[in-house]
# Entry
Amino acid sequence: MRAALIAITGTVLALAGCSSGAAQPPRADSTAPVLAPGRPGEQARTLSPGEAATAVPGPTANAADITYVQDMIVHHRQALDMAVLAPNRAASAQLKTLADRIKAAQGPEIQYMTTWLRGQDQSVPDHHAGHDGMPGMATPEQMEALKAAQGEEFDRLFLQLMIRHHEGAITMSEQVLRKGSHTKIEELATDVSVTQTAEIRRMQEMQAKS
# Structure
């Protein structure tokens, strides 16, 4: 979205320069519209130059960015706790492959978020951090049930819990995309949403076959 806004704004300025013979500086009172592409499934909408100036995230983090990253570290850690159970408990080879993909994606994301928080002089949640009210998180009782399950029962419970877990991560990402201000966190949240939406579809297909 950011690249599209910059490209469209650049085109408008370039055309203005051609018509006057010299490039003109942008005016704060300009009424030229800027097209903002929508997210997947949403229509594009027109922004005024004033709106466009504030619609593009910058390099400065706000409270929403910090909270998202701290919470997402806790969220990802539980996903890894679930995924590492699959090799010795799952009946489905497809589910084991999915669990490997989750580990391969979310492990490096935890490392990235940890480094980013330290770069912002913010605290990194410890491994016993609470998650009350965090969307999609499994309860301690559900985690114990998953650890105790084997074979097809494990597969059924894993898919049920992981779909809900992914839906929670998407909800958190949508919130920071609305409220955050840091470019890197917008990119991270977008990637989390896209990746986990695709994984939800795979898991729902697996549920339908079982």
Q: What stands out?
A: Confidence is low (pLDDT under 50) at residues 1-42, 51-55. The first strand starts at residue 34 and ends at 36. The CA atoms of residues 85 and 147 lie 7 Å apart.
